[in-house]
Recover the amino acids of this structure.
């Protein structure tokens, strides 16, 4: 099951440049939360702070508190432990190109020393079913590489790979921006189903996508969280003029 | 800035204003026709109904296109929803003007009688409501729209009073029943126009403040304050 995320006074820096300013947010468990805002507003930096990807960049650092359920992200937890609980899907599908479809999905578990073949088979199948890919690839799980799939299938393979380690939170950084409308529709449908089991945070440039898939939406601007509310409120009657200007296309 | 979108929104606004002007003119002409027993004005109202109907279709088509192609949000989405509803109300205002004109045409064929009801005063109040509702749309101001809502009670009272005195007169002098009935129906038509003006005002409040004040769902004072001086 998904867990809630609590962020308090989060500040993020790239060297001397501050990218996020005092972000406070509570993400509800088993809901999809969308983050929107113009390029460079800090939304990707924000979700990268949730699984400590931010600190992989030289001179990048974070201040503040992030809790994933009862788990403190920046207080003595190893990044590896954390990322078992927080899966991530990126803008560009990035399957391991030389691995088979099966091995792509099993990679995370194998890396963690999981060797039980029967259970592994079950988890791979369940993950591929959860990402709505199984029926399309079941006949060549071991024969074809992840890279041989279409862009939309590759992205669903990456989602299956993230789900295989049974995370509680799934972060998605513009997961559909390189996909056609049909593949986008499949991923959106998937998000709708996955939130029954996972907490989903999705960064998107496509405001209609945020409106379609997320119950809550946060608007970022210049590193600040300007507004965070129910999605229908943000898109019908936002509280802040800057949010309204953005969602109505008056800037950005 | 979405130039094409803004152009379409401005076009929609202008079309609705023209439609509003036609509906307002129809009501004024019908009321003058009643006061002056003027057949020519009645015919003008009937002839212009087709213009109002055509305007209604044009506005619906444009709103439909914008919704389908531009995915408007927030204040823009509320604006388009409000416009489509105001459009329907204005068309109904036009219908009520036609009803009044047809009633007047019947009345002109009968001998004129003094009736204890001040239809011109009621017509003046109703015209003012239509005008002010359209002004609130033009200005994007919820305060003006709120004033329209408050005027509705006055017109309702006028209609109730007209009903009482006209029924009494019909009982006292059955030979003027037809004229009294015509006047009563005109009063009812005017009250309907006032109701449509109220709907328009409610839609303006929804557009500007995002507040649903229909059926007292939310009062304007409890609605969020507008973020800017006007919605457009």
């Amino acid at each position: 099951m998904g867990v809630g995320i609590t962020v308090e006074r989060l500040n993020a820096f790239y060297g001397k440049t501050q990218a996020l300013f005092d972000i406070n947010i509570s993400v509800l468990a088993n809901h999809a939360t969308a983050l929107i805002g113009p390029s460079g507003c800090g939304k990707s930096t924000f979700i990268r702070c949730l699984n400590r990807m931010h600190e992989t960049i030289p001179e990048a650092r974070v201040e503040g508190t992030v809790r994933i359920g009862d788990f403190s992200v920046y207080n003595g937890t190893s990044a590896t432990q954390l990322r078992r609980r927080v899966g991530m899907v990126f803008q560009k599908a990035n399957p391991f190109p030389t691995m088979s479809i099966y091995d792509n999905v099993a990679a995370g578990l194998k890396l963690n020393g999981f060797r039980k073949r029967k259970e592994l088979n079950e988890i791979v199948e369940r993950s591929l079913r959860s990402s709505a890919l199984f029926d399309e690839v079941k006949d060549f799980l071991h024969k074809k590489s992840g890279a041989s799939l279409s862009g939309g299938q590759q992205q669903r393979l990456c989602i299956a790979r993230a789900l295989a380690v049974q995370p509680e939170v799934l972060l998605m950084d513009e997961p559909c921006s390189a996909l056609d409308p049909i593949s986008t529709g499949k991923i959106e449908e998937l998000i709708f189903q996955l939130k029954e089991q996972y907490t989903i945070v999705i960064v998107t440039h496509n405001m209609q996508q945020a409106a379609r898939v997320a119950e809550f939406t946060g608007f970022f601007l210049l590193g600040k969280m300007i507004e965070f509310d129910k999605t229908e409120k943000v898109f019908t009657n936002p509280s802040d003029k800057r949010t309204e200007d953005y969602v109505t296309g008056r800037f950005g | 800035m979405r130039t094409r979108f803004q152009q379409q929104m401005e076009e929609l606004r202008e079309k609705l204003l023209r439609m509003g002007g036609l509906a307002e003119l129809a009501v004024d002409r019908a009321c003058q026709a009643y006061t002056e027993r003027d057949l020519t004005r009645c015919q003008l109202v009937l002839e212009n109904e087709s213009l109002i109907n055509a305007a209604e279709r044009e506005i619906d088509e444009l709103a439909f296109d914008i919704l389908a192609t531009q995915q408007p949000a927030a204040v823009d989405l509320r604006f388009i929803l409000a416009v489509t509803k105001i459009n329907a109300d204005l068309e109904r205002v036009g219908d009520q003007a036609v009803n009044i004109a047809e009633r007047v045409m019947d009345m002109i064929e009968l001998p004129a009688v003094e009736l204890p009801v001040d239809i011109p005063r009621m017509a003046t109040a109703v015209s003012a409501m239509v005008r002010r509702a359209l002004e609130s749309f033009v200005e994007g101001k919820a305060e003006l729209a709120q004033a329209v809502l408050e005027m509705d009670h006055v017109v309702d009272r006028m209609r109730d009073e007209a009903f009482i005195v006209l029924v009494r007169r019909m009982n006292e002098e059955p030979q003027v029943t037809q004229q009294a009935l015509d006047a009563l129906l005109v009063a009812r038509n005017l009250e309907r126009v006032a109701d449509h003006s109220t709907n328009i005002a409610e839609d303006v409040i929804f557009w500007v403040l995002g507040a649903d004040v229909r059926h007292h769902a939310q009062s304007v004072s409890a609605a969020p304050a507008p973020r800017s001086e006007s919605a457009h």
Notes: The radius of gyration of chain B is 19 Å. Residues 74-108 of chain B form the longest helix (35 residues). Residues 228-232 of chain B have pLDDT under 50 and may be disordered. Residues 81 and 94 of chain B are 20 Å apart (CA to CA).
